[in-house]
Structure formats: C-alpha cells, structure tokens
Amino acid sequence: MKVGKGAATLKRKNKGFTLIELMVVVAIFGILTAAVGTSVSAIFSSQNRKCASSIDALLSQCRVLALSGAEDPVLRLTLEADGYYGTIYTGATQRSRQRLGSEGMSVTFTVNGVEYSLSEQNLRLAFDRESGALLNLDEVTGNSLSGSCTDIRVGGYTIEITPSTGYHRMSG
Fold this sequence. Notes:
The chain is an alpha+beta fold. The protein is built from two helices and nine strands, in the order ααβββββββββ. Helix content is 34%, strand content 31%. The radius of gyration is 28 Å and the shape is elongated. It starts with a helix and ends with a strand.
C-alpha cells in the first residue's frame, strides 16, 4: 500500500504536544489551584471568625453573670480530644458548654506580654462582681498562670480585653 506525501507529513506532526498546548494546560492548573486555595482559606477564616465571636459572646455572658450577682461565674477555655470548648460555671455547677472549633485551629492568649497556646495551657477567666473588671488569673481557681489576660487570638481575629474594666472587643 502506497502512503501519500500528505499522510507522511501528518504522521510527523503528531509526535507530541506543542509549547502553546502545554502553556494552556499549565495556566488552567494554575487557575484551578488558586480557586481551590481561596476556597480553603475562606472556610478556615469563617471557622476562626465563628470561634472568636463565640468566645467574645461567652466573655460577655460571664461578665453579665458576675455583675448580676451569680455565684462566682468562671469561663473556662480548653482544648479537648475533639476540639476547643468554652464552658461557663457558676459555683461548682456547669451552666453552659459550647464547642468553639476543631483542634486544628490556633487559639492563643496573652498574659503579661507573653503569648500562650490554649492547646498547651487551659484558661479560666472571671470578672469582679462590683466593677466588672477582669480578675487576675491567680485569683481564679484552677489557673497555673498569674497576671492579666489582655487578648485572645483565633487565627487572624483578636479579642482585646481591658482588664481594669472588663471591656472587650473583637477585631480582625
């Protein structure tokens, strides 16, 4: 069987991909990677924001309980096997418990200018009954640290606390 000149030329041209085809494929992979990265980043950011908002709300709840005369309200922040938790106790009774986020998150707090990780050190916070000021950590049973907690950080979100007034606000 005789192969024509056109068929031989066609066979030689189909030996691989052209540079333009490879560039297009690489560009498509780059766009897909950026889209997936943005989506994952948005998911983690939303989880961090939710966790920080929940801690801020628990701080408010604990402070209101203290000012209303409840029996020694304490907010306890811990990392357990399945994630971070915030629990409010009044006296020895557990009043509320809330799962704040997964154990893969980063939650830190600052005491006297030193940053601690909640994964290594639990935190118990309480407020003064009369002024609403944040009590020093050594005044709250169960803390191994002493001094004032000035902020709690969850990812890129910060809950700033003014110990002398108990005022706190979230930013980020």
